[in-house]
Design brief:
The complex is a heterodimer. By secondary structure, chain A is α+β, with helices and mostly antiparallel strands. Chain A has 4 helices and 4 strands. The two termini of chain B are about 40 Å apart. The chains are: A alpha+beta, B alpha+beta.
Chain lengths: ~130, ~350
């Protein structure tokens, strides 16, 4: 009984276990699995990442003004949906040029808001892919 | 005139983590009849596995069945595909898989224990265990890059390696955690709210455990020697110091103590793995498509998890059947409730550690 009173009293002067979030920033792990980043100039357009991606968050879609790259013979453009991505980095493991063309950062995904057309914009891209 | 009153618990209830409904037929305070409904969180994952996704991506899909045993789901699916393709993975990958499986078991059991404390009205202990559970979550984030969805196991091995500095860091954290778990054992055996209150409540006898095919900690608390880790040969559990933990009482207190001693055993296994990790590659590329069918079992934190996978030689599978531990234990759950007080029902339910998102998938 006495010890529990003593413990309860000392607990009054202890720091809380939680982080005082908006004031103190949360430390992010260096190896945290975050956004997939893409180097357009180094890409060889083999489309391996597109095939490997489990949720289909990477799409190469034919566009009118494709990025200038001699490997890009079909006139494709890379599209990435951070809200669909599960950050498993299967695409990076499938990529023949990892760290140059495709790599995983530790950045957090952006917040999806309506004005960005997170869903509708992506569905249109998927339709283009199916045609 | 009808003498019994029907009282439901759920589908939304303050003591429940996930939606489940039990209908209790009560005579005064005693429960005399039980009906259950578990399908509130059905997401059609089995169907999606055979229509939407190719076989090499399904390991990530089935990990979304459950947040607490995500790694066991992807492990079981991956093992079944490796069995169908006929590939052998390296020893190091096997050890790293066990490491993650056991860390997952630790954090799942800690969640269950904290929930039991909350149901006993011991809010401070709930906070304490949940606070300590953060250490395990940090270790998991350090190894896999994420706290809950690990996406660590892929067909052919594991996705990330651990270096010496990480291993040292993890060992130090596990050592701290071990002392904390010893503290819990003291609380769970000596504290009145956690031990005496739970003794003799929700008893499942050894005979009934046999009769209802009980699995997992629920069976081991009744003295039934049922642990899949003892029976499989896909992973070298006998090399890392696995010991089966059993108890003979079969009540809520026994279940808590079994979980606590499993925590200690899991921590010891993690220590053994980190200290004796073999050299080698973590990933072997396996070629081919699954053909034929197979059944693979693994020990999830709540008991035996079984996958039946049938492939036809193409990238899409014919069938993925998931049998989850909670689903197999429902007959035993219903039996334990019979004859108990209605007031004890939330505490008994929490001691089963039911996982409804697994069950409904």
């Amino acid at each position: 009984m006495l010890t529990s009173f003593f413990k309860a009293f000392t607990n009054l002067f202890k720091k809380p276990q939680t982080i005082d979030y908006p004031v103190t920033s949360i430390e992010k792990d260096k190896e945290y699995r975050g956004l997939i980043e893409y180097g357009e100039s180094e890409c060889i357009y083999c489309l391996k990442c597109e095939k490997a991606c489990p949720p289909g968050a990477i799409l190469f879609v034919p566009v009118e003004n494709p990025p200038k790259n001699e490997k890009n013979k079909k006139g494709l453009k890379y599209h990435y949906n951070p809200h669909l991505c599960i950050y498993c980095s299967e695409c990076v493991r499938a990529c023949p040029k990892p760290e140059e063309a495709l790599w995983q950062s530790n950045k957090k995904p952006p917040i999806g808001i309506k004005d960005d057309k997170v869903n509708d914009g992506w569905f249109e891209l998927e339709k283009l892919k199916k045609v | 005139m009808k003498k019994t009153i029907n009282i439901p618990i759920g589908s939304q209830h303050i003591a429940l983590l996930e939606p489940v409904r039990f209908k209790f037929e009560c005579e005064n305070e005693k429960i005399v009849g039980v009906g259950s409904d578990v399908g509130f969180v059905h997401r059609g994952i089995e169907k999606a596995c055979t229509t939407k996704f190719k076989f090499d991506g399904i390991g990530y899909v089935v990990a979304r069945v459950c947040g607490l045993c995500a790694i066991t789901h992807s492990m079981t699916y991956t093992a079944s595909i490796e069995k169908l393709i006929g590939g052998e993975i390296t020893q190091k990958a096997k050890y790293l898989r066990i490491l993650l499986l056991e860390l997952d078991r630790v954090h799942s059991h800690m969640l269950c224990l904290s929930h039991t404390c909350e149901n006993a009205g011991f809010e401070a202990m709930f906070m304490r265990i949940m606070g300590d559970r953060e250490d395990i979550m940090e270790i998991q984030e350090l190894i896999t890059g994420n706290r809950v969805q690990f996406d660590y196991i892929s067909i052919g091995g594991v996705n990330r390696d651990i270096d010496a500095a990480q291993a040292k860091n993890i060992l130090a954290k596990l050592e701290l955690l071990k002392h904390k778990v010893l503290g819990y054992i003291d609380e769970f055996t000596n504290n009145w709210s956690l031990s005496l209150k739970f003794k003799g409540i929700g008893v499942l006898t050894l005979d009934d455990a046999y009769r209802f095919n009980t699995i997992g900690p629920l069976a081991r608390a009744s003295g039934l020697q049922a642990d899949v880790r003892n029976e499989i040969d896909y992973l070298p559990y006998d090399e890392v110091g696995f010991n089966m933990q059993t108890h003979s009482d079969g009540d809520i207190n026994a279940r808590n103590l079994v979980r606590l001693s499993e925590l200690l055993n899991s921590i010891e296994m993690c220590n053994n793995i980190l200290e004796g990790l073999p050299e080698g590659e973590i990933f072997t590329k396996l070629k081919g498509k699954p053909k034929g069918d197979t059944v693979v079992r693994f020990e999830a934190p709540r008991g035996e998890l079984m996958y039946y996978v049938k492939g036809n030689g193409s990238a899409m599978l014919d069938r993925v059947r998931i049998k989850t531990p909670t689903f197999s234990s429902i007959p035993a759950f219903s039996h334990v409730f019979m004859g108990a007080d209605y007031a004890d029902a939330p505490a008994i339910l929490a001691s089963f550690d039911p996982c409804l998102s697994c069950t409904a998938k």
